[in-house]
Sequence to fold (248 residues):
Amino acid sequence: MSTTLDTATEVEERPDPTAVEAARRERCAFLEGRLRALAAEIAAAQAEFVGLVAEFDRLEGWSGYRSASDWLSNHCGHASATARKELALGHAMESLPVLRQTMARGALSLDKAAAVASLASADSETALIELALETTANQLARVTAAARRAIDPEADDDQAKTQRRNRFLHTWWGDDGMLDIRGRLPAEEGAVFRKALEKAVDILRREAKAAGFEDDPPAPGVVEELVDPVAGTVDPNGAAQADGLGLM
Fold:
């Protein structure tokens, strides 16, 4: 009798799958709505931000730095590529009022607005905005990139020439005796460098895993104390890449 009662109690306490699924769906609906609302708020804030950046650049408020994008990198924590995109979009929207208004009300993300701005004119911005509202950011990027190539087949060549002009590599000794390195490479050379660095990091990772097993394998029950090369570093991923560069 006791066993029967215990079993009945377990059945009664088991959660109703239908109720669990309903709760999950309700939570997902809330999260989706909140994420969409926040995305719109972020887009609206970014519209104001890039507009102010363009004005700041025009007034040369960044004086003392190399450029407005350099100032953004130093004071707003934005990567150089992000800063350049924001600056370009801010200036473009000065002559694209419909795009500016659409982004300001949160209807277009920064990436979508930048894609539209890269191709739009006063005559075409409305049509491009309508396209942006109906496509994903990735689809829009592909469409606008293809359109730019069709309009200017030499655009890719111009970009390559610009990258070649802007390449550099600087090294200097820091006060702590470490060698500091900073540079920029054109896309093709950068891809080769990244691939070689990834290969070097992978080699060192495999060597670390194999350490201690060069001779006989450990006896049963004996745990090998392997040394992690990046243990205790401030930036383990960066340290691994630094070791890879050393190997290269």
Summary: The longest strand covers residues 168-173. The chain has a mean pLDDT of 84. The chain has eleven helices and two strands. The longest helix spans residues 17-58.
